[in-house]
Every structure is written in C-alpha cells, then in structure tokens.
Amino acid sequence: MKTTSDLGDLRGKRVLVRSDLNVPLDGTTITDDGRIRASAPTIKGLADAGARVIVCAHLGRPKGAPEAKYSLAPVAKRLGEVLGSDVVFADDTVGDDAKAKAAALEDGQVLLLENLRFNAGETAKTDEERAGFAGELASLADVFVSDGFGVVHRKQASVYDVARLLPHATGDLVSTEVDVLRRLTKDPERPYAVVLGGAKVSDKLGVIGNLLGTADRLLIGGGMVFTFLAAQGHEVGKSLLESDQIDTVKGYLERAEKEGVEIVLPVDVVAADAFSADADHEVVAVDAIPADRMGLDIGPESSALFADKLADCRTVFWNGPMGAFEMEPYAAGTKALAEALVDITARGALTVVGGGDSAAAVRQLGFQDEQFGHISTGGGASLEYLEGKELPGLTVLEEGDA
Ligand code: ADP
Ligand code: MG
C-alpha cells in the first residue's frame, strides 16, 4: 500500500480524503469528538504540504437523500477548531456548491463536503449503481487518500470505487489501525485475552469463532453474556437474550474447552427491574437472576475476576461495554475493566479498545486516550479484520493504481 509520502509533491493538487467523521450528536452538539481528533493529523499533514484538501465523510444512516439532522455542518466547525484553521463547508456532496468550492480552494485550504450518504450511490449494492456517484466524487480531485478506517470493511463509492478511479494512497490513520491489528493477529505476545461485551451477541459470534484459534482467554460481559449464561443453563430473567443463538454459543463453549481457550463469564450481575437509571437494582449471583429483572452490568465480584484474568496479559483486545454504562448505576463494570487495561498498559502490555460505544465509554468515564495502547476508530472494521474477513477498502488499496 502506498502512503501519502509516496504521492510526490502535493502543492496545488486537489486531494480527496475519505475520513470517518461519524461522531455521536445530541441535536447539533458533538458528544464525543474522538473520530474528528483521530482524523485531523492526516488532513493537517496534507494541508501543510500545500494540498487543496477535499474531505468527504458520512454521518449516521440517512437513506440516500438529504436530512437536516444528519448534516456534517457541526463537524466542519469542530474540525476547524481541531485543525486551528477554518474549514470551508459545502452544503451538497457533488453538486454545484461542492464543485464551486472545490474549484475555489487555495493551497493548504480544507473543504468538507456534505454527508456522502445524502446520495443513494454511496451505499448502493451494485458496482453499476455506485459508479456514477464515485465518478462525480473523483472528478473533484486529482488524487485520493483513504483514511476512514471505520468504513474500510464497506464496499461503498467513497471507500472502494473511487480508489479505482484516482491515484491513491493509504492515510496515516488507516495505516496505524492496520499495523495494530496485524500485531493482534500475527504472533501476539501472550497471554492474549479478548474481552467482548456490548448489546448483540449475533454481531460478534463470527469473531468469537475465529478467536478461538488465536486468543488464550475470552472474557465476556455486557448484554451478550446472557446468551452465554442461558447456554450454560442459567435463568436470565428479562435480560437481553438471543435464544436463536444459544445452540451456536453452546458449540463455541465446547470448542473452547477442546482447544484450551479459557472462557471467563461473570459470576454476578447488577439486576434491575427496568431499563432505566432510577430502576430498583441489586447485585445477584448469575444463578439467582430474578425472573422479573434484567442484568444491566457485571457485578463487583466479576469485575475483580476480570481484572485478575487480565493482570498477566501482554496483549488485550476489548470490544463492547460491560454494561449499560450510559446510565451511572450500570457503569462500574466498564470502568473497572478500563482500569484493569490502564494498569497493564502501564506495565507494557499492548491494549486495544475497539468499538464506537467502548471508546465513548472510556472517555465518558474520565480516561485519557493515552492510557491505552490504541483506541480504534472502527469497531466493525476491526472485528471483521479479527474475524479473518477480506476488507474491500483495504484490498483496493493493495491492488495499486488503475
Ligand atoms: P461497541 O460500539 O463498542 O462495539 P456495542 O454497540 O456492541 O459496542 O454495544 C454497546 C451498547 O451495549 C451500549 O449502548 C450499552 O448500553 C449496551 N449494553 C451493554 N450491556 C448491556 C446490558 N447488560 N443490557 C443491555 N444493554 C447493554
Ligand atoms: Mg456500538
């Protein structure tokens, strides 16, 4: 893969950069600007080299047409603050405004295009349907830099197709992410533990299957743990449960046993009578979850157990919060897990936090990014990489220029 330094003198060149600026918004307020801060160095590097930088990105899941609540306008403002220079904003993606503003850019200036997904061609299923939009994007620029790690597993116009139309390079953020993932998959320092949590077990089953071949320990918490507990015969009350996955999970538990992978499940949970911060809640053992309650966090004994299982690890990948951390009474398990990772990071272990909510959780709980080895900007992409899948947005970069 070529890096931006292989692109030669960029002064005066129009560089289209695909970034991942998909930040959580409360109205027009950005509640976690991590992805903007992570994307800024590549953009700044190009601008400092004299390029006319045209940034494209998506926000949320609009259905192929403009929707005010998904506008990138607040992101343009914040990006300007992070870069320390004004960012021009186009109120369409490839329309008259984008064309005019791209043409008027001066050396070192940065333009952000409106949400890519306001255009049906961005996420269309067939190559033919994406081609027109990809062509319009490509016509704005001379070269393409792929830096949206959160979308490299997507075969989308701004990720895949445009790279086939323009000379291209891998941005620094994508390079860094891929380097870290390589360290997790190629001969990781052991013991190597993977911690999985979050809401949906079906999202993460594929990666569990693949990890049984590489990880030494698999720690499971969050909403997905109740499908595991149910597979072991426990009653889980009103907790999240994917009953159609119980058999698959049983199969994994057996395989883990055979392959000598230790699966660590919580021994206690915080059980609440409703999915709400002011619900009545208590700590119960996993074999005593009341029928009318739901587990919303791992309990204190489990937190201690998980910390103990991580203490000697040299490599840890963590995806998915241990509980419904957005509500204060159910944040302790996620906080304890983050603390355990911070401790081993300080002792030289490689720790990687992947997943949008996991990254938001550690920041919301007061941790600094620097306390972890790496906070990934792409939960889905990193999971698919660890699952051993091909990521189209990386394959196309490896293919080289058309
Ligand atoms: P990530 O974005 O890090 O990959 P996920 O999207 O898989 O994580 O899951 C995050 C969500 O899981 C959070 O919104 C959190 O509230 C929810 N969650 C975690 N534990 C539970 C639980 N026990 N019950 C319900 N929801 C949970
Ligand atoms: Mg999520």
Give structural attributes.
402 residues, alpha/beta, six-stranded parallel beta sheet, 14 helices, 17 strands, binds adenosine-5'-diphosphate, binds magnesium ion
Mean pLDDT: 96
Question: Termini, distance in Å?
Answer: 13 Å
**Shape label:** elongated
Unreliable residue stretches = none
What's the number of helices?
14
What percent of the residues sit in helical stretches (DSSP H or I)?
25-40%
Q: What structural class results from the helix and strand content?
A: alpha/beta
Q: Beta-strand level of the residues, as a percent range?
A: 15-25%
Report the C-alpha radius of gyration, rounded. 22 Å
**What can be said about the biggest beta sheet?**
6 strands, parallel
